[in-house]
Amino acid sequence: xxxxxxxxxxxLGESESLEFKQTTGQRSDGARTxxxxxxxxxxxxxxxxxxxxxxxxxxxxxxxxxxxVQEMRVIDPPVFPNVERVAVGPGREVIVVEVSRGPRRPxxxxxxxxxxxxxxxxxxxxxxxxxxxxxxxxxTARWExxxxxxxxxxxxxxxxxxxxxxxxxxxxxxxxxxxxxxxxLLRGFxxxxxxxxxxxxxxxxAPAERLLPDFPQCLLRVARFRGTDKSEFLDNRxxxxxxxxxxxxxxxxxxxxxxxxxxxVPNLFARIDDPLYPPEALREAxxxxxxxxxxxxxxxxxxxxxxxxxxxxxxxxxxHFGLTPEALYRPHESLPxxxxxxxxxxxxxxIETWGRGILKMExxxxxxxxxxxxxxxxxxxxxxxxRPSRYVPPQxxxxxxxxxxxDILHILxxxxxxxxxxxxxxxxxxxxVWSVKDDxxxxxxxxxxxxxxxxxxxxxxxxxxxx
Length: 467
Fold this sequence. Notes:
This protein is of the alpha+beta class. 34% of the residues lie in helices and 20% in strands. The protein is built from 15 helices and 20 strands. It has helices at residues 3-12, 27-39, 62-72, 126-137, 158-170, 182-188, 199-205, 208-211, 243-257, 279-292, 339-347, 357-367, 403-412, 420-427, 433-445, and strands at residues 18-21, 43-47, 75-76, 82-89, 92-99, 108-109, 112-117, 120-123, 192-193, 196-197, 219-225, 233-240, 263-265, 270-272, 302-306, 311-316, 374-378, 381-386, 449-452, 459-462. The strands form six sheets. Strands 12-11-15-16-18-17 form a six-stranded mixed sheet. Helix 2 (27-39) crosses helix 3 (62-72), helix 9 runs antiparallel to helix 10 and helix 10 packs antiparallel against helix 12. The longest helix is centred in the middle third of the chain and has 15 residues, at 243-257. The protein starts with a helix and ends in a 5-residue tail after the last strand.
């Protein structure tokens, strides 16, 4: 590194990957930061630069460099950072210690793990340390590629296996094998190891009646709530089944319970009904939940919750490999937590590879005029949340609402305060005024609409909106 290059880095200031230390007397702090860089995306520690960016350097001897190197050797597993001396003035040098993202995370310094948050080095919690350790073991030892003790191919749904292969061939995602033997097909999907069926095969192809008690986590919870919280159910069900079966059941529940985002078009005197959320985006979210969830959590599940103002799809587990909700909306490498399960979903044409799932959902919702889905991590799960772009009237609030009553709510859902004559006009000139009056009175009784003013100056509006 040249002095000009060093000064270019210093002008950037301390960051998630850059730390300044006044002297090598702070080498213990520098080693902690190097440990944090190893656990993150790598970085550089400059000894001889003040926190404010002053490049003063220090007197450096071979012993000075050796002391820094010895401090870095306390990091475990052992690392071999790149150490450079950069002259910055007569008899003054800056020592630069550079590390890349560590291949054997988590790393510790004096038996403690560290992480980098902005310009701060923090000690890792036990949960963070264990998560990194689990990710390190993920390539070779994970829940899905462990043997399914006591299971054989005869316990699986052979027709589903063949159906998956035929669909993969039709989509050009698999060569036509010379057999339709379930065992041979499972081997082709890498779902058999050393003659033993893997757990991923059970998740994908086991019939529902065989899953309990061994695999209680192959569970789908679906619910339709009244209003915007969980205080009252309109429908609440649970299903056990393989991943394909649960996907079908979830889609069926959404078709049965999602309201239609209808709108009345002026001058046409007709209501146009559209799906509230794009079905393809919901399917993508469901498939991602089934592929990326943590099946190692015995009490885990995939959940679908429909509220009046949103739809949430939740899967057990957390984000891994350094991904955050924000990072998912940028192009990123495809790193499925269950690559065997994800591979079969891909071959069947349910998902795409290369980390496109979230970006595809964003595209589909944008095309539908909706805000992009919200992604939230917490409470032991990852939630994808869809919200509508416009008011959607309930179909039932204590009583079933007629089509005309729903149309009235659609009209007032624009946020306008409208006189009776304007509501009648937007419904259609042949609509009896008396029936509109009756419906408005009924909706007011239900607490959905209200009115203000008197006589010709009166107007109707949605309850909760300004009158």
